[in-house]
């Protein structure tokens, strides 16, 4: 193999290694870094203090500015009928509802 062929192979190998390194990084894994690549996930843009009468199957806490377009603090309730509700964290009924959910083993995962 000629020396120019060796250089081509070396450049190709270096390029492949560079791309493999970049692909190994998480976009929004378990780190404390903000998610900056790609589209923002669905999130609450507004909240409501209205009570949720339906049974809740999962809960999330959206912290302010976690994602680019998710500026507000909100609790996100997903009901058994897959309805999503954005709850005002200052809603008077929320602390007791969170206690009842915790008693059923449902805790609000922080986004």
List the helices and strands and how they pair.
Blueprint: H1 3-23, E1 56-62, E2 74-79, E3 84-87, H2 94-103, E4 108-110
Parallel strand pairs: 1-4
Antiparallel strand pairs: 1-2, 2-3
InterPro entries: Chemokine_IL8-like_dom (IPR001811), Interleukin_8-like_sf (IPR036048)
Pfam families: IL8
Domain Chemokine interleukin-8-like: 42-100
Describe this structure in words.
By secondary structure, the chain is α+β, with helices and mostly antiparallel strands. The chain is built from two helices and four strands; from the N terminus they run H-E-E-E-H-E. The chain has a four-stranded mixed beta sheet with strand order 3-2-1-4, with helices on one face. A hairpin with a 4-residue loop joins strand 2 (74-79) and strand 3 (84-87). The termini are far apart. This is Chemokine interleukin-8-like domain-containing protein. One of its GO terms (molecular function) is chemokine activity. It holds the Pfam family IL8. It comes from Fundulus heteroclitus (Killifish).
Major sheet description: 4 strands, mixed
Measure the end-to-end span.
54 Å
Mean of residue pLDDT?
A: 76
Strand content: 15-25%
Quaternary status of these chains? Answer: single chain
Q: Any idea what the radius of gyration is?
A: 23 Å
- Element-by-element helix/strand order: HEEEHE
Class derived from helix and strand content = alpha+beta
**CATH C-level class of the domain at 43-110:** Mainly Beta
Count all strands and give the number: 4
Number of helix segments? 2
């Amino acid at each position: 193999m000629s020396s120019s062929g060796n250089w081509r192979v070396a450049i190709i190998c270096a390029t492949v290694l560079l791309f493999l390194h970049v692909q190994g990084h998480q976009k929004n894994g378990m780190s404390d870094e903000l998610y900056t690549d790609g589209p923002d996930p669905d999130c609450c843009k507004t909240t409501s203090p209205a009570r949720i009468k339906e049974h809740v199957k999962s809960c999330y806490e959206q912290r302010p500015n976690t994602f680019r377009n998710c500026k507000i603090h909100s609790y996100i309730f997903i009901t058994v009928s897959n309805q999503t509700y954005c709850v005002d964290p200052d809603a008077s009924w929320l602390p007791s509802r969170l206690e009842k959910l915790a008693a059923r083993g449902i805790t609000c995962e922080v986004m």
